[in-house]
Amino acid sequence: MxxxxxxxxxxxxxxxxxxxxxxxNPVDQSATPWVFKNATLEELKKATVLAETAFxxxxxxxxxxxxxxxxxxxxxxxxxxxxxxxxxxxxxxxPKGRAEGERARTIGxxxxxxxxxxxxxxxxxxxxxxDANRTPIPxxxxxKINEPIGPIAVxxxxxxxxxxxxxxxxxxxxxxTGCPVVVKAHPMHAATNALVVQAILKAAQDTKMPEGVFxxxxxxxxxxGTQLVQDPLIKGVGFTGSIAGGTALYKLAQxxxxxxxxxxxxxSVNPVVVLPEALNENSANWAKAYAGSIxxxxxxxxxxxxxxxxxxxxxxxxxxxxxxxAFNQLEPNYMLHPNIHSAYxxxxxxxxxxxxxxxxxxxxxxxxxxxxxxVIYKVKASTFKTNPRLHQEVFGPLSLVVECKNVxxxxxxxxxxxxxxxxxILGSETALETNENLVITLQSRVGRLxxxxxxxxxxxxxxMQHGGPFPASTDERFTAVGVKAMDRxxxxxxxxxxxxxxxxxxxxxxxxxxxxxxINGNLTKD
Length: 526
Fold this sequence. Notes:
By secondary structure, the chain is of the alpha/beta class. It has helices at 41-60, 63-79, 82-92, 96-119, 169-177, 190-206, 223-230, 243-254, 276-281, 283-295, 314-328, 338-352, 381-386, 407-415, 429-434, 436-445; strands at residues 7-9, 12-14, 20-25, 30-37, 126-128, 142-148, 152-155, 181-184, 214-217, 236-240, 262-265, 272-274, 307-311, 333-334, 356-360, 371-372, 375-380, 398-404, 420-426, 446-451, 490-496, 517-519, 522-524. The chain has a 7-stranded mixed beta sheet, with helices on both faces. β1 (7-9) and β2 form a beta hairpin. α2 (63-79) packs antiparallel against α4 (96-119) and α3 packs across α4 (96-119). The mean pLDDT is 96.
């Protein structure tokens, strides 16, 4: 397979730097054969200048052409075939099925954004007509529409080499709105990224996009990412990763002469409330489901259920026992990289000093490096309350069961949590009605409320909210998943008393795009 290991600057490849790195094979515990050169600051500047040059021609081209570009990217990614899944598994240690599933999701996202811009609703057109007879002051004609903000920097995620990286949700949503993208590739899966870059380049050239609509930079240090966020031509940032990384980028962006938004999706322990009603009827089923959810992908999901809250009872004791036994039957999987594995082992050691271990994934017949051995812990509510470390994410197959005296104590603990992506309640509809204060408290801490389910698995659709109060994300008003992710790269612009024929088509009187618009407070296609 031909993997081009150079930075892509517009339509040209470049590798003038001297510092090199390779990705890592977690199964073989060795470096992969592909060697990449870190981008230089000069290459970075060329990329951002080209992105700025491409911005106006790209944002003003027809929606049909932008949609065709997105669909062409999807087609070219699919055309990579086995080459993509082979490289993906080599760099992640994840199974082929996971690679195929994530590829399908990536292609589906590109298609969904193409469909979304074709229906025009992302523009959110609003018209308030003039009223010359209004007293005491006549009313002017005002019309509002969303416009793209400019070139976007996208940082690839370590745990999703496709769906949250090079052509993932951040890139696809930005391109859909009319914003050029400069990707900072994640070094852990640089070769997977390189194949996707080749697909995007071919799609851009085949659909005659302006040069600079997409560029990609490689680096295994912080310098390129830091300079990219601080480059005055970059107007927004998309990031999926750690709290430390996302917070650092956010602070950099706010320290600029002209601050820009950073939409970072970061850490989450995704609390689960196990009410007694769930244990009276479905205890064994929930134990099996949650053992699988905690261990899925070696726990390397942003929605991994890291905290389970229950009410002290013989039924809760039985559930913990069932959960631990179900967990014991699962084989450990490889973690993505030695650095992630090392951080996970450090987190386990910290929990070992505070909590009681109740279960672990099965021990392989022959010990292997890089495996994430999953663990279930438990503590009393009093211990949890006085140990902030137990509130924080350990990225990996680990979960903590917190035993509370009653619902009031449980609610107090939920209230003390930081912001989360998800919150789950297992129980009955009657229990939801009875425990309204608990539900409201949990809702205040999360972006997505789940009833009788597991948090792992993020549906890509318009109703999905993948974001939450800090530190789950830097701006809880926005989502990183689904077509509403486009809102991050748009800003509203009003036109006052503007000539009709010079207005954007979405705001013209005869509605040439056939959109549903808010006109004088009423939704209509008139």
